[in-house]
Amino acid sequence: MTTYVLVHGAWHGGWCWRDVAAELRAAGHRVHVPTLTGLGERVHLYSPDIGLRTHVDDIVNLLRYEDLHDVVLVGHSYSGFVVREAADREPGRIGRLVLVDGWAGRDGESLHDRAPRFFLDWMDSVTAGGTIPAPPAAMAGVTVPEQAAWLEPLLTPHPRRTFSVPTRLTGAVDSVPCRAVLCTPGGPMPFPKIAAEFGWETTVLDVGHDAMVTAPAELARDLLADA
Questions:
Q1: Which residues pair with 181 in a beta bridge?
Q2: Tens digit of pLDDT for each residue in 48-101?
Q3: What's the rounded Cα separation, in Å, for the pair 86 and 44?
Q4: What does DSSP assign to residue 225?
Q5: What predicted TM-score, i.e. pTM, was given to this entire model?
């Protein structure tokens, strides 16, 4: 039995992994789907002061208090930064990292440092009071009406500060095997470039950025390769 910890990206919550988690559990594995502070069902804890470190602490504390070991730690999109810093702090608990269309940077870098200009301009245009409102489902590649109708009402505003706080890495994360799942390989975001820069093994599921919504069975099958 493998232990998976699936960490959602910006605007989402642990709920977004519902169908992927069901597939992994049906295959006999243990699955945790934490929700980061201020998002999803923890939206009542929202504050514009929430930063990257808050979300890293969420995952580190889960690993410690549940006493998890040999974990397949999966980060989607923004949470690529979250899971890499968490693994840097607890490398002995992580068997493998998987970044699903995930952002990543070197020590001292933030998502702001890695994001293309058009994405930063979009964030600047919509940010209010330190908050980035949730984008429409189509922006994450969710265009099937039934899927969009489930997704959009559950999305919550995201604290902008999490994108600007630099990651803190000692280098311990580099000892943890990592691979990247590219869900929008021909899209405008630099996920293939990031994976190539870090030298990670890659697999391709050309199914849209929110793969856990658009293609949960396919994503689960890909993750089962790490069991």
A1: 100, 203
A2: 889 999 999 999 999 999 999 999 999 999 999 999 999 999 999 999 999 999
A3: 24
A4: T
A5: 0.97
Q: State residue 143's pLDDT score.
A: 96
CB count in 10 Å sphere of residue 115: 17
The per-residue pLDDT for 194 is 98
- Choose among 209, 194, 200, 203: nearest CA to 223: 203
Which pLDDT value is given to residue 17? 98
DSSP 3-state of 163: helix
Lookup: tokens for 211: 């793969």
Neighbour tally for 83: CB within 10 Å: 29
Phi-psi region of 172 (alpha: psi -120 to 50; beta: other; left: phi over 0): alpha
| Residue of 5, 172, 176, 175 lying closest to 74 (CA atoms) | 5
Percent of the chain with pLDDT over 70: 100
Report the catalytic residues: 77
Bridge partners for 7 per DSSP: 75
State the pLDDT at residue 121: 96
Fold of 3-224: Rossmann fold (3.40.50)
Contact present, 191 and 214 (Cβ < 8 Å) = no
User: Is there a contact between 19 and 160 (Cβ–Cβ < 8 Å)?
Assistant: no
Q: Cα separation of 176 and 52, whole Å?
A: 20
Instruction: Give the separation between CA 141 and CA 145, rounded to whole angstroms.
Output: 12
pLDDT surpasses 90 at 115: yes
Backbone torsion region of residue 36, taken as left when φ is above 0, otherwise alpha when ψ lies between -120 and 50, otherwise beta:
beta
Strand 158-159 relative to strand 131-132: parallel, antiparallel, unpaired? antiparallel
